[in-house]
Amino acid sequence: MAKQAKNAISPTRSEDYPEWYQQVVKAADLAETSPVRGCMVIKPWGYAIWENIQRELDRRFKESGHRNAYFPLFIPMSYLQKEADHVEGFAKECAVVTHSRLEADDEGKLQPAGPLEEPLIVRPTSETIIGELFSKWVQSYRDLPLLINQWANVVRWEMRTRLFLRTAEFLWQEGHTVHATADEAMEETRKILDIYADFAEEFLAMPVITGEKTEAERFPGADVTYAIEAMMQDRKALQAGTSHFLGQNFAKSSQIKYLSAEGQEEYAWTTSWGVSTRLVGGLIMTHSDDDGLVLPPRIAPAHLVIIPVTPKEETRAAVLEYCQKLQKDLEAQPFLDGRVKVELDDRDIRGGEKTWGWVKKGIPVRVEVGPRDMEKNAVFVGRRDRAPKDKEAINRDEFVGGIGALLEEIQNNLLAKAKAFRDEHSREITSEADFVEFFTPKNREDPEIHAGFASVGFCCDPELEDKIAKEHKVTVRCIPNATADEEVPCIFTGKPGKRVVFAKSY
Amino acid sequence: MAKQAKNAISPTRSEDYPEWYQQVVKAADLAETSPVRGCMVIKPWGYAIWENIQRELDRRFKESGHRNAYFPLFIPMSYLQKEADHVEGFAKECAVVTHSRLEADDEGKLQPAGPLEEPLIVRPTSETIIGELFSKWVQSYRDLPLLINQWANVVRWEMRTRLFLRTAEFLWQEGHTVHATADEAMEETRKILDIYADFAEEFLAMPVITGEKTEAERFPGADVTYAIEAMMQDRKALQAGTSHFLGQNFAKSSQIKYLSAEGQEEYAWTTSWGVSTRLVGGLIMTHSDDDGLVLPPRIAPAHLVIIPVTPKEETRAAVLEYCQKLQKDLEAQPFLDGRVKVELDDRDIRGGEKTWGWVKKGIPVRVEVGPRDMEKNAVFVGRRDRAPKDKEAINRDEFVGGIGALLEEIQNNLLAKAKAFRDEHSREITSEADFVEFFTPKNREDPEIHAGFASVGFCCDPELEDKIAKEHKVTVRCIPNATADEEVPCIFTGKPGKRVVFAKSY
User: Fold this and answer.
1) Would an 8 Å CB–CB cutoff place A65 in contact with chain B?
2) Predicted ipTM of the assembly
3) Which stretches make up the Aminoacyl-transfer RNA synthetases class-II family profile domain (chains A, B) (predicted)?
4) CB contact at 8 A, B95 and B122
5) Where are the domains of chain A?
6) What CATH class does A426-503 carry?
7) What is the pLDDT of residues B445-462, one digit of tens each?
């Protein structure tokens, strides 16, 4: 049990945050890099988290009237060019399909053959292809609103990739909607933003700021981009989801028109919005500690593990039977809209290795049961939101009856802890000098650990924003919705400004 | 109501079966062709069927110990070449990615740029890339069996495509497993085949024959391929799912080895298996009639629709309220592992148009409620497994209480009808002359309507099989498992043979 003396993950967060992240992902067996540049493999424990994200978001999308559909993986090259900003944003990094088969050359080596008349792009996002189809689906005001979502893979040829956070291929959902009026499209854009924010807080226990992006960070082709922004434990911001009001830009480039009730032909208004497997990265970095992954119960693939402690052969069968009965009783307990999910780890390996394996996988509750616990009708319980050594004996039936409440308590604790961390590293800053001080690495022990979120008055001048980004490596994460109506003087220019959040970001 | 005099779909099955299929898909709004050659768009009603297929299969895979994961979309070109039969099978039709960005030329026209060192193939199936990863995941006998499934899109550059049945891009699941022994791998292969067959019968109400493929129809790289084969209404066979025993072929080409309990390094044994959106095509062709789609309740996106009949303005509000209450009560009724799913169609369009719209969409039960039904506390019920005009008045509360049983009755009827159809068009044939007679088009009114399934003794000689395929356009669909032990003389050569099923196929 030598490992209990130190932490399970090396390096620790304070020693080397980026490497700590990679090691947490590895130790929890969530994902790994693949032989294909920039593409990751999502392993079962990581994919089960993504399935839980999908299930809950899908439920919320359907409840709010959206329906799923599926559109082609490929986009004709010419489509990308229809919207000027859009092509600018996506042409620089995309997978281009140019051939339709392989042929062996004289030396028996395969070569691309069957060149295509028009190259195809593997979708980096689907506005252009979906726009083309929507222009046929939408004819009359009776066809509106059209509320569609797609679960899919997309590809952006990123040069610097990191598991979950930035990969060439990633999984996501992309919503695409069409409305008769600007107001309705804007209402949809903000409704989705709220769904994202509520989901992040309620399920991922990840507090987020909702707000509008400045011009520099807007989606290519959007009039307005909203985002949810979360603070990671290195105090950098993670953009965890975006919702775009596209105005009539794509309606015009794709000719999405409808006949109004008054018989007029009108251009429609569209929105698009998405979250991706990046959410898993945000989840990891919000809660995990130097012992590995920490999972909020509502998103965990399993809620608790039972570990039979059977040092002596003669009590083995009885302990195992006791554990199986315990599992059955726990699995009968309700949690969320389902039941408590229980793993029984009866693998024939050392107990310490087993326990630390589950700590590193982030399972919310560990239950150890040995012959003496069994005699006392007790279980020995460890919680992932407390130190690994901090375990307590609980009466078995009390534990079973209270498991739902315990899981909710852990969920709430993790959210409260993440909120407290964010608040602790958020400052209201009123002068340029304080701003520079706040974001200057020399004032902190580790230059890789950042200052946090600075809430400041800013005139939102794009050139000034660009200059600040270059000088201090920080950007405007958003103009928070909560204070969007405030008028505050710009701390750099003294001009009238908005309240914005500056931070370093992923 | 002119439409009620004739059928809703034109042409009918007997007039032009392939065109009837396209029109059913269109009338039910299931899918459409896209501007990208060979790629389809799956529309919400069609996608909801696929989601139901996914949900139930996923449940069965997980229940039998499989876990989901996600692997890269791209496969390096050289990987495909590792297994000789495999590259032979897939190199001829695949999407090849050769560039990583687009650049505007002097005329502002986009051109592929950033050529890749090694071209990438969009996965047509993932044995080679998953094999590469499994070779790292599998080290010891303790790591086995490894039971993984992936839900994904794949691309095969098909020249002749048809919605759902054969498309360049399609959605599927692909299972990939690794085992310590040949027996265990074979057991897995057959277990999955049974899952497919049970699912097809129990949910799609599509009876299937399970059996082994002959060499000619084997998966490229497999030692044994099993399939489920269903009969469509043109009496052609549809291969609806396959399960492959891959022997040690991919273990050797990908170096999947494990250390046995005895400390020996051994090559593992692998399997792979898949079903795709093609199942939706099979579903359509098994049950639909000349009025459009017919959906078995267990797979239908919604089980019933309530259509308020409100000819007079003054009773409109009361009828609508009555219908809303009816919807609520129906939605409280259990069906399968959930509840009855109800649509209330209060659109302001003609009643006939509404009714026929739902007939064409295949909804299992239609309920019409007018002011007089309301007074009598009755509902007017039409079932999709009966003629559209065949409706009956039922006491409202009796109907609500009996809805679960009614849906099961419809489900069972559709399966029984499909089984009867298949049996009616299946023959045991004992001579070459009868075989030729059975498959010769001149003996039937419409050469496009085929003879059905011929059960014959066959020596399984590949050259003879090829000759028969060319002469009669029929192939061995499978060697049915149910009679695999029988020794029967070949009707062509008199040599000892197996009992096989010959048919025309999709």
Assistant:
1) no
2) 0.96
3) 46-296
4) yes
5) 17-287, 302-408, 426-503
6) alpha beta
7) 666 677 899 999 999 999
